[in-house]
Amino acid sequence: MRFAVQHGSGDPAWTPAMISPAHVTAFARAAEESGFDALGFTDHPAPSGNWVRAGGEGSIDPFAALGFCAAVTSTIKLLTFVLVLPYRNPFLAAHQLATLDHLSGGRLIVGAGTGYLKSEMLALGVDPASRLDAFDQAWAVMTEAWGGQDVSAEGRGFSTRGTKMQPLPVQQPHPPLWVHGNSRFGRERAARLGQGWLVVMGDEQQSATIRTRQVPDLVALRDGIDEVRELTEAAGRPPVEVVVAGRWPMLDLRQGWDADQRREQVAELEALGVDWMAMLSCGDDPSAAEESLRKLGEDVIAR
Question: What angle do helix axes 259-272 and 218-234 make, rounded to 10 degrees?
Fold first, then answer.
């Protein structure tokens, strides 16, 4: 089992203290020192005020944040958790991601999704009805551009004849691409094209909010993993080529802590076929966030 933590700026209760240079440095280093395998930031560049006030997650720019973290760490992977591909011109995203892969010495993992927040899409000039097509188009253009050849393509909002990507990513043919989402669309894309499936585990309300299929319990998770494996084999790929990243509830030491129970959960999820456990850090108190990282590292990861 490997472990990823999303920075607490993604907590709806986050405070500006969470993104001070001193705290982000301390948080990133604590994650690395505590044995976490990846550190992530989410992507909400233009949410509506109503969504934010209703409890929507926070966000800071993932490219800037991960670039900062790359400079103050040396081994931990850097995860976009997750990057909404329809929000950006695919050549621009490919260039930013390749640059980040270089500046981190090849530590980037690209978690990618279609997005779900209609108001944000409209603010960014994205047609919500075309988000799935836009995801496919961005994926195809990015991976082709990372191949090093001149790319000619027509798409929504762009037209190119012989675009050359530079630099190319350090990781070849490209950084690992993980697909976020429980729908048939997400599972099929992860199985056919990706290197990972980021499953969303939650209740009916959460699934409805982010417009994806519900995975409420371990039975549904097992069925989802089986489906992804079957789809991977149907695509002519070994199932081991696609890792599964599950999700724990928010990491917050103040909410109570049973180390034995957490270790049992890890064993149970690992038996189901989960390769990574991802979790969101609390974001209302920088000290609590760092202490929670170190406690999980000591009680679970180190064991």
Answer: 30
Q: What share of the chain is helix, strand, coil (3-state, %, to 5)?
A: 50, 15, 35
Instruction: State residue 207's pLDDT score.
Output: 47
pLDDT 10s digits, 23-58? 999 999 999 999 999 999 999 999 999 999 999 999
Give the torsion sign (CA, 145, 177, 38, 170). negative
The token pair at 152 is 């000619």
Per DSSP, helices labelled H in the chain are 21-33, 49-53, 62-72, 90-103, 118-123, 131-145, 184-192, 204-209, 218-234, 259-272, 286-296
User: 25 with 65: CB under 8 angstroms?
Assistant: no
Question: Using one digit for the tens of pLDDT, what is the confidence trace for 246-264?
Answer: 988 899 999 988 999 999 9
Tell if the pTM clears 0.70, that is, is over it: yes
Mean pLDDT of all residues belonging to the chain: 94
Q: Are 223 and 233 in contact (CB under 8 A)?
A: no
Q: Which residues have C-beta within 8 Å of that of residue 130, sequence separation ≥ 6?
A: 86, 156
User: How many residues belong to the chain?
Assistant: 303
Q: Are 224 and 186 in contact (CB under 8 A)?
A: no
3-state DSSP assignment of residue 145: helix
272-298 tens-digit pLDDT:
999 999 999 999 999 999 999 999 999
Q: Where are the domains of the chain?
A: 2-301
Q: Which CATH superfamily is domain 2-301 in?
A: Luciferase-like domain (3.20.20.30)
